[in-house]
Amino acid sequence: MENNLAVILSGCKQGVPAWQRILYEKYYGFVFSISFRYGASREDATEILNDSFVKVFRGIVTFEFPDQEHALAAGFMSWLKKIVIHTGINHCKSKANNFDWLQHEEAVEGPVEYDHDEPIQKMSYEELMKLIQRLSPAYRSVFSLFVLDGHSHKEIANLIGISEGASKSNLLKARKQLRKMLQLIQAQERSNYE
After folding, report:
1. For 127, what's the count of Cα atoms within 13 Å in the CB-facing half-sphere?
2. Which of 51, 137, 170, 185 has its CA 20 to 30 A from that of 25?
3. CA angle, corner 188, sides to 183 and 192, nearest 5?
4. How wide is the angle at C-alpha 50 spanned by C-alphas 25 and 79, nearest 5°?
């Protein structure tokens, strides 16, 4: 079977399981890396991944093919990423009660200052992802959307259904929690060497 994206997507639009499997295998790593940001565990990430692909296979008929292969690949990746992010957000919301999403409504006025030399900046991606997964669903979603996916607080507020102030507050609190977790890990490491 040919691995041309247009051919694969055409096969998926027709509902051919073999083409769906090829698309799944081709984009598994990409989708899992995004899913992992929103899940509290590997199992959650796998659930987000599978739900995302179900949505992709159901919604592929609405995806419009650009004429050029490069534009097709970029357009498809963007469309796929949106689906995974929305699926991840919905997953977080389903795992959290409404109170958890609404309790952080305190506004943060003005620009938020961050220390870019903080220990989190020195962590590997894998270490950071393990810590992010320990955050509450609200903090994890806002942190992932802002820091990892590059959304503005206005966009996050619209995606999640909270105020911009709550988004800023959740991000600030997520960073503080991550910093505390990292400090505990570093203190444990120091005590192991003494």
Report:
1. 12
2. 137
3. 145
4. 75
Best CA proximity match to 129, nearest among 36, 3, 42: 36
For 97-106, what is the mean pLDDT?
45
Nearest to 177 by CA among 150, 138, 124: 138
Rounded Cα distance, 123 and 120, in Å: 5
Cα angle value 104/160/135 (rounded, 5°): 55
Pick from 55, 62, 60: nearest CA to 90: 55
- What residue spans of 39-163 are helical by DSSP H? 42-59, 69-95, 98-102, 125-132, 137-143, 153-160
Spatial distance between the Cα atoms of 20 and 13, rounded to a whole number of angstroms:
9
pLDDT over 90 for what percent of the chain? 39
Split at pLDDT 50, 70, 90, the class of 183 is confident
Which residue has tokens 């994890």?
A: 140
Angle at Cα 36 formed by Cα 158 and Cα 160, nearest 5°? Answer: 10
Rg of the chain over all Cα atoms, to the nearest angstrom: 19
